[in-house]
Structure formats: structure tokens, C-alpha cells
Amino acid sequence: MNYNNAKFFTSYGKFEQIPPCDRTEIAFSGRSNVGKSSLINKIFNRKNLARVSATPGKTATINFYELENIYIVDLPGYGYAKVSKSEKKSWNRLIGGYLSSERELSLLFQLIDFRHPPTADDLSMVNYLIDGGFPFVVILTKADKLTKKQREERRKALLTELPCAEDITIVEFSAETGEGVEEIRAIIEEIASDE
């Protein structure tokens, strides 16, 4: 799979605008500023395919990227406190609409900041995925910011913090060092090869 050929396809600000699904989709979800854009750029070997912003809550659209026979779908970040209630509602409609619609969603990568316990929003999302029977993988971002000891402590804590942690595939990732990229690509390729 040639990740360099990935390209931005389109974005939608309202769920109603999204056309019916015509191929397999792999989605990325996580709270604002968890590093979704950095992760997508790292996977695709690009600096600016997904726009990285220092301002949390910047991605307010669902962005579709084309990669050979699949779409990579970047969902808006959730949980940023400094946006209006109406913006939060519209994001929730967008994310909820996407997840509850008839799409060929083969996998969702749920990003969680490795440095901290999952937020209430993270836990709501993980529970929603478990209850809905969605196949998902948890990616722990910003792994390079932790010492070896801190990582061990966080890994141990996650077993009690995350529901069904023992049954979830968890990948530790760093946009700085590239740790986890090959593992994530292997998962994407496995899904794409089934198409």
C-alpha cells in the first residue's frame, strides 16, 4: 500500500451532506488536541495532509482522505470546553450521525492521551463503541512524553480505567519518534486487503 498516494478527498460540516458510502472506511476519533492530525500525517508520510492546529477544537468537520480502495475518516475532536453549546451539539450530531448510519466502517481508531487517565468523554466513546459492537483499536498518543517507568504505571492503570481493557488491542504511538506507525499501518493494510 503506497501511503504517499493518500490524498484529501473532501470534508463535511453537516451529517446530511455526507453521500452514501461506496467503499470501506477506517475512522479516527479522539478528544480535541489528542493528536489525530499528527497521527494521520505520520501514517501518510506527510507534513500537512491533515491540518495540525495548536488550537484545540479546530477540526469541526468530518474529513475524508482517499487511500487506494479505502477512505480514512477523521472525525471532529470532542470534549473541548471552550466551544459554544451549539457547536458541541453540531459536532455530536456529526459524529453520532456518522457512527449510527449505514456505512462500511471496518474499524475505528480511538485515540487517548497516554499521559493521562481517559477523560469522561473518552470513556463515553469507548462504551458507545463496545455497546454498538464497533470494531476498534485504542491508540495511546504522545508516548514519547513519558519515561519508561511512567509508561509502565499508565499501562497498569489503564487496565482498571478502560472498560474491557484486556480485550482491546492497544497501540502506543508517538508522532515525534514514529513509534507505533508500522503497527497501525499493518492494521490498515489488513483491512484494505480484505476489500
Describe this structure in words.
- This protein is α/β, with parallel strands linked by helices.
- It has one domain: Rossmann fold, CATH 3.40.50.300.
- 33% of the residues lie in helices and 22% in strands.
- The chain is built from 5 helices and 7 strands.
- Strand 6, helix 4 (148-161) and strand 7 (169-172) form a beta-alpha-beta unit.
- It is globular, with a radius of gyration of 16 Å.
- The mean pLDDT is 88.
Please specify the SSE layout and strand pairing:
Elements: E1 7-12, E2 24-30, H1 36-43, E3 62-67, E4 70-74, H2 85-100, E5 105-113, H3 120-132, E6 136-141, H4 148-161, E7 169-172, H5 181-193
Parallel strand pairs: 2-4, 2-5, 5-6, 6-7
Antiparallel strand pairs: 1-3, 3-4
Taking pLDDT < 50 over at least 5 consecutive residues as the criterion, the unreliable ranges are none
Oligomer designation: single chain
Q: Strand pairing plus helix content: what structural class?
A: alpha/beta
Note the overall shape.
globular
Helix residue percentage: 25-40%
Number of domains: 1
Order of neighbouring strands in the sheet with most strands? 1-3-4-2-5-6-7
Please identify the top-level CATH class.
Alpha Beta
Q: What is the tally of beta strands?
A: 7
CATH superfamily: P-loop containing nucleotide triphosphate hydrolases
The main β sheet shows up as: 7 strands, mixed
